[in-house]
User: What shape does this take?
Amino acid sequence: MTNTNVHDAAIIGAGFGGMGAAIQLGRLGFKDLVILEREDDLGGTWHVNRYPGLAVDIPSSTYSYSFEPNPHWSRLYAPGEELKKYASHVADKYDLRKNMRFNSVVEGAVWDAENEHWTVNIAGGERLHARYLLTATGFLSQPKMPEIDGIETFAGKVIHTTKWDDSYDLAGKKAAVIGTGATAVQLIPEIAPTLAELTVYQRTAIWVTPKSDAKIPKRVRSMYARVPLTQRIVRGFGSGVLEVLMVAAVLKYRRFKMFNKIAERVAKRHMARQIDDPELRKKLTPDYDFGCKRPTFSNDYFKAFTRDNVHLETTSIERIEPDGIVTTDGKKTTIDTLILATGFNLWDVNFPAIEIIGRDGRNLGKWWRDNRFQAYEGVAVPHFPNFLTLASPYSYSGLSYFTTIESQMKHMKRLFGEVSKRRASTFEVTPEANAEFLDRMTEKLEDSVFALGSCSTARSYYFNQHGEAAILRPTSTINAFREAGRFPLEAYRYA
Ligand code: NAP
Assistant: This one.
């Protein structure tokens, strides 16, 4: 089936990134938008992830759109379902649902040079056309299944944390969790009391610092609703602290590595307060610098390992059998439930998440892999006209995904403003502007913990297959916002 109508824009992904882009395009006067979403509802990561213990770990006042504050967060760090509710509220308030098409799995998009539009191929054979293509497919949207011998022979229940089965009762089960990333840190303390036995398979330990979480009293919430400025002040303060920590401990490691050392001491003391056994503490202590891998926050992760029914296994997994896991020392642990907290595949399949073919047949994924991962200001790539990639190399502001989205919205405003002023049909970033940006980001990374810290054992997804930490934009958020509003207009060619 072919639809000959050419939409103003096709946005791929109905998470916060896609919704932010749709809001901005709406403000710029584009009316015919289509938002394609592979899941059956909106919310992106906050729709897909529903595992027990899910919550934000950046203060909620910061982890939300600045133009759409939410006075109703119940805690400083809101639980996952409140984020999903917030996403629905935004979709309703900005009337985005009418543009959304769920269960629409986009297989690829091809630039049609003759007609100056994108052709988007949807699973099932449907095609649609749009003048602009914006991909907002997130950074953590392709779940990683571990390649472990025999995993397919396991006869019990297998659950990846992105596909939580609410109907499955964990009570009295003998479970294993593979993985000790941010997801496992939230999940393990939640499920441990319900299970008969829980064995946690840790390959790489993670830095965990305390989480200063608390309920937000009703009177404070109603004050936020009545006087939004009060919540803005809280947001400003929280964002300011995070920004300083991010810039100092991650980006300016050369000068400020004492911040990382302090954070390591805080994490170790946090662990020592909850675990007496020095052997267990040693196993849970990372051997890489704080900041190499995304640190996590929890007040009950370490405590969970002091329970009689929770066991930490640090010997490597050799194979999985129908009824258990065998480690390389020959020990077998019998289980009936296998929980995979094994994270996401970013570099092989997420950049980009779909096949994108630009001008002269250039394949974005292949080009990124054969050359280097790169995107001008984290949004545009040469040879890909009328295309903005919102989950790109060097786009992620470490502060909060919402600052990434909002700086990209600002970039869109300036770019589309110029396109409209010139009455251009196409825009495309120049190779020179792109190269200058990549050189600048590469140089800035030289001061970061990724270049100077001891990161080789961290196995961090921040690093790609070429050993480059190419996700985070290695500048302050202030710089990202400033450049989004002032980038040289001649960085793009307009035709
Ligand atoms: P992750 O950080 O990538 O952790 C995956 C874990 O699985 C790691 O411990 C990894 O070990 C382990 N693993 C993977 N394959 C394995 C294998 N074959 N054998 C043994 N272990 C294996 O994934 P995640 O915990 O889902 O977190 C991903 C990101 O999601 C976080 O960094 C964060 O950005 C985001 N997140 C955010 C929140 C929030 O509160 N906002 C909550 C959860 C997640 P290695 O380290 O050795 O590879």
